[in-house]
Design goal:
The chain is mainly α. The protein has helices at 2-17, 43-51, 130-155, 164-184, 189-209, 225-242, 245-252, 267-311, 313-357; strands at residues 56-62, 65-70, 72-77, 81-86, 100-102, 112-116, 119-121, 124-125. It has nine helices and eight strands. A three-stranded antiparallel β-sheet has the order 4-3-8, with no helix packed on it. A three-stranded antiparallel β-sheet has the order 5-6-7, with no helix packed on it. The protein has a two-stranded antiparallel ribbon with strand order 1-2.
Length: 361
């Protein structure tokens, strides 16, 4: 257990540092012109705004009043140097501050840009966006849970688990006995357990928090392809570093394959090398696509209420009954998907480790 919470510290440090360089590339609330006219509801913008990252954290809205929690904007410009300020200075994207603003259209739509000689230029952006803050929150929760459980095991050595122990222990045993041992092997599975436990709990917790519509939930962490890319890179690096000679020999010179598939055109080696990179790519896309699709379906049902409400208030009220029922059903399904996606990512990672470390006789 001590190894697990030590690994958690290293894992989360890297996970929060790497995506932050790209986390400002999406923005949930692009700038728009304020008008006194009633704007037409656009379901596409509504859905994308809610699943994208942002420079502030929306809490609630009442009419034209939007309560948001501002987040730190941290940028470095080659023209004006280092800047750090709160996103509230943008006034929801309607104002510029210190020469920086949030682009409302074009290539950098929703991103922080700097006006230089009349042109929008992207600064080096390491802002604390909603997804980054949500990861830090989940990091703190997991560290508190695992450190607490580790202390309980130390104090209550040899006794039956209680409290958080009784919840966490069956999951740890399941991952050990049903994922790590069968996929990696009895001899080497323990080496990979800290990582497997970390990604399982991290993905599961953030999937669940993404379903909560209020603070500290509501961030689409595992539906952000930058985050899933980093998780997949962890698996890729661990697999490549720990792979044995048999694994690389199998890739370069696949046994049992006719020679004419290897020479003069190295067809099979090319296929095997491509497989090395497609495995983490599949991990990245599967998690991203499943979580994002779930959120989009729920938001699409909510959008139906406003779409029919624009036609007729009666249609809007009538549609709301059906939409709410479907939303509740989808939320129940998403609870299952949240667990399944954490399980699948962990299982595939373990399988990759097992393939890379398997001893061939």
């Amino acid at each position: 257990m001590k190894n697990i919470h030590r690994f958690l510290l290293i894992f989360f440090l890297a996970l929060n540092v790497i995506p932050v360089f790209a986390s400002g590339d999406e923005h949930a609330e692009p700038a728009s012109q304020e008008t006194h006219e009633k704007e037409k509801f656009e379901p596409g913008n509504f859905i994308m705004d809610h699943i994208a990252d942002s420079y502030d954290w929306h809490v609630f809205s009442v009419g034209d009043f939007h309560a948001t929690m501002p987040l730190p904007v941290i940028v470095y410009s080659q023209h004006s140097g280092f800047h750090m300020f709160m996103s509230s200075n943008f006034h929801h994207g309607h104002s510029a501050y210190e020469g920086f603003s949030i682009a409302s259209e074009g290539e950098y739509r929703g991103k922080v840009v700097e006006m230089v000689n009349g042109h929008e230029v992207r600064p080096f952006d390491i802002s604390m966006t909603k997804n980054v803050v949500a990861m830090l929150i989940s990091m703190v929760i997991l560290l508190l849970v695992f450190i607490s459980v580790a202390k309980s095991y130390t104090r209550r050595k040899g006794k039956a688990p209680v409290g958080l122990q009784s919840f966490v222990e069956p999951i740890i045993i399941f991952i050990r006995d049903e994922i790590a041992k069968p996929a990696i092997g009895e001899k080497t599975y323990a080496k990979y357990m800290p990582y497997l436990l970390t990604i399982f709990f991290f993905i599961w917790l953030n999937n669940l928090m993404g379903m909560v519509p209020f603070l500290p939930g509501g961030a689409n962490v595992t539906g952000n392809i930058t985050i899933t890319m980093v998780l997949a890179l962890f698996t890729f690096v661990i697999t490549s570093v720990n792979a044995n000679k048999s694994y690389w020999k199998h890739i370069v010179n696949t046994p049992g394959v006719p020679w004419w598939l290897k020479f003069p055109v190295p067809l099979m080696p090319l296929v095997e090398v491509m497989g090395v990179f497609t495995k983490p790519f599949v991990l990245m896309v599967r998690l991203f696509a499943n979580i994002t699709a779930g959120h989009m379906i729920v938001l699409a049902f909510v959008s139906l209420i406003f779409i029919f409400g624009q036609i007729s208030p009666g249609l809007g009220y009538g549609t709301s009954v059906v939409s709410v029922l479907f939303v509740v059903f989808m939320d129940m399904l998403e609870l299952l998907v949240a667990l399944i996606q954490a399980y699948v990512f962990t299982l595939l990672s373990a399988l990759y480790f097992g393939m890379a470390t398997e001893e061939h006789h």
